[in-house]
Amino acid sequence: SGLSKLLETDGSELGKGADHKHRSAPYDRLKLAAAWRIEHPALWDKYAGGRKTVATGMQRALRAGLQRPTLQVRSHGAAAALPGTLRADSAEEVLLHGTSPDLVLSILSTGLNEHFSGISSGTAFGDGVYFAEDAGKNDHYVTIDAAHDSYSELHKRLYAHGVSHPSRVFYLLVCRVAVGFHVRTKEAHNKNMKSADTGERIFPLMGQKVVTRELSPISGVEPPVLHHTLLAENHTNGGPFRYREFIVFQNSHIYPEYLIAYQRFDGASGPRA
Model pTM? Predict the structure, then answer.
């Protein structure tokens, strides 16, 4: 299925890196254990409005003679196997967000909140919501939901009506994101980051203060249209990231469409604790 395809990643890279929230015994693949389609009409209405705003901004940038930045998103092919088409007018993509069990219910209720950015995983690229196109990156930020707990409100909602807790699972949100007109950086941990393509500021300067909760305007578009997404590609020490990150600063540009529970396996051995 498309959801299983979204978990396909380079197994030799799994479990590596200093930023893993939960360490497991060695593992080389991520396996789908359960999935839920999220039906949230109020969140969808908010996203539909946000997506339309992004499409309008893109249209104005194109009318101003700017070229739409090309973006080959790794998850695009798997997304094609899911219901519903992706809207080209807002550069809509399906992207992944890893989370912890204690945050899942809040996200399902109110959506992803950019105002809480950095609480669990830092803000190397500003105060937005962080996404990846490769589940290997999301796997750094998840924490384990080891066993069924009959007192857990999350478990009461997810593991009912014949759905049993698979044990040792981690959670990913599969989100529609109106990526829009993106700006690209090869830097990190730097409020004064510059666009890798134009050399212009990525975060706006308001008086003497750098604002990291929003992106700078697209040059040459009046009245101003702010960039919609930050694409982070490289590290400050000169080496490429193993994975790209997409940072979104407006939660109206995001709709969590599926919740995935996955397990870590080493070949046929697993799930890993």
Answer: 0.93
